[in-house]
Design a protein that fits this description.
The complex is a heterodimer. By secondary structure, chain A is an alpha+beta fold. Chain A has three helices and five strands; from the N terminus they run βαβααβββ. Chain A has a single domain, classed as Beta-grasp domain (Ubiquitin-like (UB roll), Roll). Chain A is globular and about 40 Å long. Chain B is built from nine helices and eight strands. In chain B, helix 4 packs across helix 9. Chain B has one domain: Rossmann fold.
């Protein structure tokens, strides 16, 4: 079975990935599977993952599923058909 | 109670139907805590002082460096080497001698944060690192004080207002994520934009008007000049504001 997840990108992610994408994944796919699928070039992968293959601390993920979007920090969260994931960079400077 | 000087000084904002003399009196009675007096803290402090916020407490332990001067507009050429607290106090007292301005040259940490914010009506997060931002977030929640968050890098900015017990907090959004602290690139206009938004949020909350940036993360892209909002919601399992906190 295949499911479809909508991904929306903001600011610098939007400049590299476009406004949004519909990504097809197997129905057991996790957030990490989605991120790996999105990182299909060196530039895109480097925006998401650090050199050790971990999701960068500044990558913020929101998940919209039946209601208001919630921020999620679990790469292992299992996605569902028609989920929307929003990706943007957290800023810390003042 | 407003006196004749207040009525003249703030006449252009008292003219606002939704602010008026009652709103100005609320500003005069209000006490705002500003954490950090750098890129964000400078415009926040300037605009809150100009608006007549009754008491402003600013905490910053840094010294002014030459590389601060492109964006930290409270600090000028002659201030390099001075404490930012002293430098800020000097300018703000010249800007508005009618309000109480207190500056403290201290590092904000777990041991002093609650004492520093107790009795204040709002906390402005103008820090440059996540650990202190989470401390402010926790103190805001524990002491039931609204938090006005801002962050910048390059031409980008973020702003969010946290109403404890009601809206998503900083930890709900970032889950304690804290990239290593490092020097970040920034154009001075970016903290001017975001700091002005933080000051505006503090004014709106104090007066009780408008719609706050609550459960709405504002994303500012100065390069393409776009403001985008993302709806966010509370995490019931948040370790700082959730039920188990």
């Amino acid at each position: 079975m295949v499911m479809k997840v909508k991904v929306k990108f903001y600011v610098d992610f939007k400049k590299v990935f476009g406004d949004e994408r519909a990504v097809e994944l197997t129905d057991t796919a996790t957030m990490r599977d989605l991120l790996v699928a999105l990182g299909d070039s060196t530039q895109r992968s480097q925006m998401i993952f650090d050199e050790a293959g971990k999701v960068k601390p500044s990558v913020t993920l929101l998940l919209r599923r039946n209601g208001s979007p919630k921020s999620v920090d679990k790469e292992q969260i299992v996605l569902e058909d028609n989920d929307t994931v929003m990706i943007f960079k957290a800023l810390f400077g003042g | 109670m407003l006196d004749q000087r207040d009525l003249e000084r703030y006449s252009r904002q008292i003219m606002l139907d939704n602010l008026g003399e009652k709103g100005q009196e609320k500003l005069k009675r209000a006490k705002i805590f500003i954490a950090g007096c750098g890129g964000l803290g400078s415009p926040v402090a300037l605009y809150l002082a100009a608006a007549g916020m009754g008491e402003i407490r600013i905490v910053d332990s840094d010294r002014v460096e030459t590389s601060n001067l492109n964006r930290q507009v409270l600090h000028w050429d002659g201030d390099v080497g001075k404490s930012k607290a002293d430098s800020a106090a000097e300018k703000l007292k010249k800007l508005n001698g009618e309000i109480r301005i207190e500056t403290i040259d201290e590092v904000i940490d777990e041991s002093n944060i609650d004492n520093l914010v107790t009795g204040f009506d709002g906390i402005v997060d103008a820090m440059d690192n996540m650990p202190t931002r989470y401390l402010l977030n926790r103190a805001a929640i524990d002491n039931n004080i609204p938090l006005f968050h801002g962050a910048v890098q390059g031409f980008e900015g973020r702003a969010l207002t946290v109403i404890p017990g009601q809206t998503a907090c900083l930890w709900c959004l970032y889950h304690g994520s804290a990239p290593p602290q490092e020097k970040f690139p920034v154009i001075g206009v970016t903290p001017a934009v975001i700091g002005s938004i933080q000051a505006n949020e503090a004014i709106k909350h104090t007066v009780g008007i408008g719609e706050l940036l609550a459960n709405r993360l504002l994303i500012y892209d100065g390069l393409d000049l776009q403001f985008t909002e993302i709806e966010i919601s509370r995490d019931p399992y948040c370790i700082q504001c959730g039920k188990s906190a």
